[in-house]
Amino acid sequence: MVASEMAVLKEQIRNYRIDIIKMLHRAGSGHPGGSLSAIDIIATLYHHEMKHDPKRPEWPDRDVFVMSKGHGVPAQYAVMAGMGYFPKDELATLRQINSRLQGHPSVGFLPGIEASTGSLGMGLSFAAGVALAAKMDGKANRVYCIMGDGETQEGQVWEAALAAPKFKLDNLVGIVDYNKGQIDGPTSEVMDLEPIADKWKAFNWHTIVIDGHDLDAIHGALQEARNTKGKPTMIVAHTVKGKGVSFMEGVIDWHGAAPNDAQTEQALAELEGAQS
Amino acid sequence: MIATTGKAIATRGSFGEALCEIANDFPNLVVMDADLGKSTKTVKFMNAHPERHIQVGIQEGNMVTMAAGLATMGKIPFIASFGCFLIGRFEQIRLSVGYADANVKLVGTHVGIGIGADGYSQMALEDIGMMRTLPNVPIIQPGDHREAKQAVAWAAAHKGPVYLRLTRQDMPQFHGDDYQFQMGKADCLKKGADVALLATGGLLEPTMAAAVLLAEQGIDVELTNIHTIKPMDDAYIADVSRRIGRIVTLEDHSVCGGLGGAVAESLAEHEPCRMLRIGVHTYGESGEPEDLYEKHGFTGPAIAEKVRTWLKG
Predict the structure, then answer these.
(1) Which CATH number fits the domain B5-173, given the four candidates 3.40.50.970, 3.30.230.10, 1.10.10.10, 3.40.50.10420?
(2) Catalytic residue among B17, B21, B51, B60, which?
(3) A162 close to B (CB below 8 A)
């Protein structure tokens, strides 16, 4: 990514963070912590990595994005609206009755949402199925699946971890949004994941550890995954829960609470003031 | 009373045959197994079309959700395991397959106490009850070889999820060459006036035997094969209720939530009448299938006696 592209992407992501805060404030519930920790990765995927067309969400040659950590879907909605999948006004309907923007990703409501998720641990299996179908047909589709760190405590994740290398799914990229927090506390206390990278390596994934807020690092890891043949890639992305809003950063209680009026005002002031 | 032809065949075997027969008609059809292909009888397909067979090992949950991913890309996955292991992954089924309306065909074999010696852990006894709660998933339990093969072809052509419930044990063939399976329609084998016996799957054979015994006692039995448990044929159930007014359901499944539950719900809403549910009231256990059917009252004489007593009450 050249410097000018990087500057544009940074500005887009700053606006996505603003969208996320506004959406969650209006909805009165939702998950800011994990939306803000994942937004840099999701935006980089949609803007600079994936082959996709907002006007043709079912384009057979598209790359597929799976939001396995379904509670972080406001981040995906913000990017999808930004790219023209649906009118940006619709972000205001998040979590409301009759909205296409369900509280967790739901197939059939909003074109471009590929997998129903929210019961944690399933997305990597779904992504492996998509990747395998493409392989069977000799097609070039790539699949990207973002998981929460706590999510990888689910056994099904490790079923998929075994299966994807068996089928040599080098068109599959998993990303762990390693923000170190989950509802009941730090992942290290609730159910420690370490040594997390070693686990994925041991399961025969090409494993890359990055700073999940460093856009160059994200982009570089995705290129490395593209150049990796014969096995899937897992990117362990160290992130900060609530990234970009000072009073949310690293605070676990912001996992699943919407900001009130005053908090929203402060968050927006910070994000709007961060304009470069 | 009901003529049977040819040799008895387990519906899992019919499934394995049907897959191979329809493979060329459905080039996107793929088969997934969780290390039970030799038991679910997908092994024939595995050998005939290895490039379209996906072995995931002992990972039923992963298999269910992977199938949804495959379906998203246009594949028609038939995923097979023992009914209890497959439907036991209900969390994956409800979200990845049901809610997403994924074009995945769930095939549960070895259902009911009819599997015998392996005991309860391998017996699907609650699967219909769970699957019936999903609004969009037809549940089909074919009664014999011809019906099973047609049900498999129907499932392949149907766009959306389907649950096929198949037996380990051999099932007598009671449908002729000209039989046409109609999803959602009760398959009435004999009309009657005194009591309607609505049986599904493994209970068909003993119910046929019971019907003969009841006829000998002067009781005019209506005998019907209920191959589609969801959607229930409400029109037929209401008709039987009006015409006969006494209904017995028979199934190798828990008496809660299965055929008995489905018929009771239909009756209560449309045309109430007396009914009796014959099915499994306990957890399963080990034993020869015949001994288990005897112990649970799933024999011709036991069913006839129970029905006769109930009719008097």
Answers:
(1) 3.40.50.970
(2) B60
(3) yes
**CATH number where A217 lies:** 3.40.50.970
Q: Report which of B27, B80, B32 is spatially closest to residue B56, judged by C-alpha positions.
A: B32
Q: What are the boundaries of each domain within chain B?
A: 5-173, 187-312
Cα four-point dihedral sign B83, B87, B92, B93: positive
Tell me which residue range forms the domain holding A116.
3-273
Sheet containing strand A64-67, strands side by side: A64-67, A143-148, A172-178, A233-238, A206-211
Does the complex come out with an ipTM higher than 0.85?
yes
CATH 2.40.50.1020 fits B187-312, yes or no: no
Cβ distance B66 to A129 less than 8 Å, yes or no, reads yes
Query: Both tokens of residue B140?
Result: 């089909």
Give the model's confidence band at B1: pLDDT under 50 very low, under 70 low, under 90 confident, else very high: confident
Share of chain B above pLDDT 90, in %: 98
Our count of domains for chain A comes to 1
* B51 tagged catalytic: no
User: For residues B42-78, b (16+ Cβ closer than 10 Å) or e, as one string?
Assistant: bbbbbeebeebbbbbeebbbbbbbbbbbbbbbebbbb
Residues of B with CB under 8 A from a CB of A: 30, 51-52, 54, 56-57, 59, 61-62, 64-75, 91-92, 95-96, 99-102
Per-residue pLDDT, averaged over A134-140, amounts to 98
